[in-house]
From TrEMBL:
The keyword Hydrolase applies. The keyword Magnesium applies. Its cofactor is Mg(2+). The lineage of its organism: Eukaryota, Fungi, Dikarya, Ascomycota, Pezizomycotina. It comes from the Eukaryota. It holds the Pfam family Hydrolase. InterPro entries: HAD-like_hydrolase, HAD-like_sf, HAD-SF_hydro_IA, HAD_sf, PGP-like_dom2. This is HAD family hydrolase. Keywords: Hydrolase, Magnesium.
Length: 241
């Protein structure tokens, strides 16, 4: 409740928002670099940039329906090696995966400041939910493992609802679950398209989570959207000390 007694709710994206994907990915690429001699001469930042770029390339190809979702993983690793000027044999791809996957899982953690922030928001009467595009089991497990599942009242996945962000229907579903109105509900997420556009279309109040962004606001779909660079900034935003 705020000072006026109106119930307020905050919905969080999971991947790259409450879940610190960047950290996991960085640790996993670092593990690959340590164990693949041909990568030793490259800097970690260079490898991460190339790996992210490979994802973008393949994701675009997937959106154009040139490749299937199932092929993205292998193709991403092939693209990563090829773009570095290295050979991408099936053995190399297999070796990459065998190192990357467990290192990524091992390094899973909540975004800095998020546990404390969720705890405080709950103490101050906010209803909290996670809204994520993904599988029910996988996303619940991830939220539990990083220590945020018990801090939110609801976790809603696209698999369970049958619609994915930015479809406004998945946002309406989470509003029904929370029992709050759209204009009293905030959506915190890292994706301008999935989280911010979706929230705007549903009449909710968006907040962009972007640790690397400059400035306190960003123009997204012709709207000035507040930006937080660290989860703890939410407490300032909601005037909680
Ligand atoms: Mg995300």
């Amino acid at each position: 409740m705020d000072g006026t007694g109106t119930p307020k709710a905050i919905v969080f994206d999971l991947d790259n928002t409450l879940f610190d994907h960047q950290h996991s990915s960085r640790c996993a690429i670092s593990a690959v670099r340590n164990r693949c001699p041909e990568l030793a001469g490259k800097t970690l930042d260079e490898l991460i940039t190339k790996y992210d770029a490979a994802f973008q390339k393949l994701y675009d190809a997937y959106l154009r329906k040139e490749i299937t979702h199932a092929h993205m993983g292998v193709k991403r690793i092939q693209t990563f090696f090829t773009d570095l000027g290295l050979a991408a044999s099936p053995e190399k791809v297999k070796e990459f995966r065998a190192i990357y996957k467990p290192a990524y899982r091992e390094a899973r953690r909540a975004a800095p400041g998020s546990i404390e922030t969720l705890t405080k928001l709950r103490e101050h009467g906010y209803s909290l939910a996670i809204l994520t595009n993904g599988h029910v089991k996988k996303q619940n497990e991830k939220a539990e493992l990083i220590g945020v599942r018990h801090l939110v009242h609801h976790l809603v996945t696209s698999e369970e609802v049958g619609f994915a962000k930015p479809d406004p229907r998945i946002f309406r579903h989470v509003l029904d679950r929370l029992g709050t109105s759209a204009d009293a509900t905030y959506m915190v997420g890292d994706s301008p398209n999935a989280d911010i556009k979706g929230a705007l279309d549903a009449g909710m109040r968006p907040i962009l989570y972007s640790p690397m962004a400059q400035g306190p606001q960003r123009l997204i779909f012709e709207q000035q959207v507040p930006v937080i660079h660290h989860m703890s900034q939410l407490l300032e935003y909601f005037a909680i000390t």
